[in-house]
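ingest -> validate -> predict -> emit
validate: passed (alphabet ok, no gaps, 376 aa)
predict: started
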Amino acid sequence: MNNTKKYKILFYTDTPLYGGAEHQLYLLVKHLNKQKFTPIIVTRKSPSLETWYQKIHQEKINLIITNIKSKNSIQNYFELKKIIQKENPDLIHAQIWNPMASKYAFLIAKKYQIPLIITEHDPFKLNFFKNIYKKLTLKIPQKIITVSKANQKLMASLYSKISSKIITIHNGIEENKNKITTQERNQIRKEIFQANTKSIIIFSAGTLHSRKGYKYLIQAIKKIINKYPQIKLIIAGDGPEKKDLEKLIFSLNLTDKIILLGQRDDINKLMQAADIFILPSIKEAFGLVILEAMQNNLPIIASKIGGIPEIIQSKNNGILTPIKDPQSLAQAIELLITNKNLREKMINYNQKYWQNFSANKMAIETTKVYNQVLKK
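emit:
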């Protein structure tokens, strides 16, 4: 008879939007050992999360959706209190998608003396009063997980008194088994990218936000488009900077060379139809999309910032460029266009390299943290 205790883990997030942090939570729970842990995901009701809910339901994971209005509402506390009293979890794992997020999970964990682990997905320096609050609440969790060593270093510098509790567990990715045919690739290039057989497709994907640095990539394209008129830049994603980027594209006379596709749910297919991937971020916690590009056989250019150098470490698997530097981006693009051997070297190297960041590995490393905390 197996007398091993099965622990109930309550995963909590108060996000209204679906993004990288939410996808990582889904992958973590999906790959968690269900023989040892019973996961419960508690989140809020939001139209933007509907697709996420469906994915969670497909994995037959217990999902509790609350009716809170915002992450700051006191209603969070009472909703979470009822759930805690009913479910009686052994451990709470809160997702901190914003430095001030999931604050009521801290209070509940302290009130009911439930071990708390948090994952800080995107830490940054706060103003004076928020910083005081943050320092106080960070005393509560037993462990603080960051998604990159760069973020661990940042957290330790901001909150030195709790630095011994901070560890890094890199984000994870699943293998993409949905490979497109040559016919599908040609169709995507013709119908979606509006490109011809001679076009060189440079692809990027992410939120259209200033922190992604897309204006510098657009400026880089302008610098080399006369020399390489076959280039086409495709950016998948939506966000607050869309109108500004459209104006920039128009002012640089690049409307026939750059396409903003908007939000897409077929990123892997689009990547397989492209030639080069670029992530020109000026702020990036980790850069999971780079691993997706590796899986999809794309040579990579990315900014030397945040957690990205923990993925791209040499010209074996990508080119790192300074942030906010269109000239360096342009030079890196030209290097890949003109050096077929380098492109193939990156593609071959990354076919195995991405497996260092698998979702299963992330779940195993997180399980070790759970075991440490639960034993105490």
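DSSP finds 14 helices and 13 strands in the chain.
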